[in-house]
Amino acid sequence: MSHFIDRQSLWRLPLFALLMVIGLAVSSNVLAQADPEGEAATAVPALDADTWRQVRSGETGPNFRDSRADSDYNLINASGETWRQLRNRWVSPFGLIAVGGMIVVIALFYVIIGRKDLSAPRTGRKLLRWPLVVRSLHWTVATLFIVLALTGLNLLYGKFVFRSLFGDAFWASMISASKVAHNYLGPLFGILLIVLLARVLKHNWPKKHDIVWFMKGGGLVGKEHVDAGFANGGEKAWFWVLATVGIVVIASGLVMDFPNYGQGRDTMQWANILHAVGALGLTALALGHIYIGTIGSEGSLEGMTTGYVDETWAKDHHNLWYEEVKEEAVGEEQLAREREGDSGDAAPTRPS
C-alpha cells in the first residue's frame, strides 16, 4: 500500500517544481513594479543628458515622438513651453493692464470732466439715425460681445478669483459652462459682426475733416464744435478696429474652435495668442465705446434705442450730417402718432 502511494506521489514533483518557477517569475515582476527605479532600469535604457538633448533637437527615433493623431512632435515640446511663457508672462498681464487701465481712465475722465451735455435745450424735433435692422444687429452683436468677453475673462483669470472663493466643484461647473458658451456663441458673433460692419460701411470711409476731429480731441480742445459727418472720427476709428482686429479675433477663434481641419499644434498655439491679445484689446476699447454711448454723452443712447436723435444733439455731434438731413426732422407728436399707427421706423422721409 505504501509502495502504491509513493509511486503515485512521484508524478506530482515535476508539477510542483513548474508551479514554483511560475510563481517566482510573477513575484519578480510585481517587485519590479513596486520599485519605480527598478522598473525604469529594466523597461528603458539609460537616459543621460545626451539622450534628452537628442529628444529636444528632434534627432531621435520614433520611440521618442508622439504619434497620436498623425503627430510628429517630440516628447519635449519646446514650442508648447514658449506658448505657455507668452501666455503667462505677457498676455495675462497685458489684459489686466488694458482692461483695468481703461476702467481707471474712464472713472477719472468722468470725475474730472463729467458728462458731455447738450449745448442748448432740445428742440423736440427728431431725425432718424438708425433704422430697426441696424439697431437689432447692434444690440445682438453687443450682447454676444459682452457674453464672450465675460466668459473669455473667466477662462483666463477666473481660477484666481472664483476657485478660491467657491471651491473646486463650483469652479468646475463655471469654467465648463464658460467654455461651452464661448465656443458656440463665438462663430455666431463673428457672422453677425461681419453683417453689421457691411451694413454701416458706407458711413465710415475716412474724410479730411476727421483729421481735424482727432487733432481737437473730438471737441475737448477748444470751444468750437468739431465738424463731423454721419460718423465722427472716433466712431470711424472704432469701426476700423472692429473690421481689422475683430476679424483677426474671429479667424483665430475659428482655428481653435474647429481643430479638425489639419492645423497643427503650432498653429493652434499662435492662434490662441493672437485671439487673446486681440480680444483683450477690443474689450478695453469697448468699455470706452460703452461709456461714450451711455452716461458719457447726453442723448447718444437714444439714437440706438429709439432710432431717433434730437436736432440739438445732431448739431452738436454731427453737424455736417445735420445740414444734409435737417429738412427731414419730424416733431415728437408726429412720431407718437406714427408709432400708435404701427409705423415703426417708417418716418415721412429717411436720412440718406
User: Which homologous superfamily in CATH is the superfamily of the largest domain?
Assistant: Transmembrane di-heme cytochromes, Chain C
Helix content: 55-70%
CATH architecture label of the largest domain: Up-down Bundle
Number of domains: 2
Order of helices and strands: HHHHEEHEHHHHHHHEHHEH
Class of the largest domain, according to the CATH hierarchy? Mainly Alpha
Count of DSSP helices? Answer: 15
The coarse silhouette is: elongated
Structural class: mainly alpha
In oligomeric terms, what are we looking at? single chain
According to DSSP, the number of beta strands is 5
**How far apart lie the N and C ends?**
123 Å
Tell me the strand percentage band: under 5%
Enumerate the strands of the largest sheet in spatial order, edge to edge or round the barrel: 4-3-5
Overview of this protein structure:
The protein is mainly α and 352 residues long. It folds into two domains: 2-74, no CATH class; 78-340, Transmembrane di-heme cytochromes, Chain C (Fumarate Reductase Cytochrome B subunit, Up-down Bundle). The chain is built from 15 helices and five strands. The chain has helices spanning 2-10, 12-34, 36-43, 49-57, 78-112, 132-157, 162-166, 168-200, 208-215, 233-257, 265-293, 300-305, 311-317, 319-325, 332-340, and strands at 65-66, 73-74, 125-128, 308-310, 330-331. The strands form two sheets. Strands 4-3-5 form a three-stranded antiparallel sheet. It has a two-stranded antiparallel ribbon with strand order 1-2. α8 crosses α10 (233-257). The longest helix is centred in the N-terminal third of the chain and has 35 residues, at 78-112. It is elongated. Residues 1-5, 26-34 and 343-352 have low confidence and may be disordered.
